[in-house]
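Need residues for this backbone.
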């Protein structure tokens, strides 16, 4: 998308800043991930934290994947 405007981008995309949520770290399937909460039992994977390259090939840990969990 291309926007041609004299208005500063901060004003154009002002409402996008208010939609940010607090990401959190958690263990999921024995791996450490950073997740974005969707509701009390679901989250979206933002980032996988692992030193094992094979973990990044797991589609269940891919960024954007919706996961189900029990809050502690």
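Answer:
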């Amino acid at each position: 998308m291309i926007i041609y405007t004299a208005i500063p981008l901060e004003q154009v995309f002002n409402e996008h800043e208010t939609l940010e949520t607090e990401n959190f770290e958690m263990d999921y399937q024995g791996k450490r991930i950073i997740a974005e909460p969707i509701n009390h039992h679901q989250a979206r994977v933002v980032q996988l934290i692992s030193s094992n390259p094979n973990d990044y090939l797991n589609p269940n840990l891919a960024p954007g994947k919706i996961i189900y969990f029990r809050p502690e």
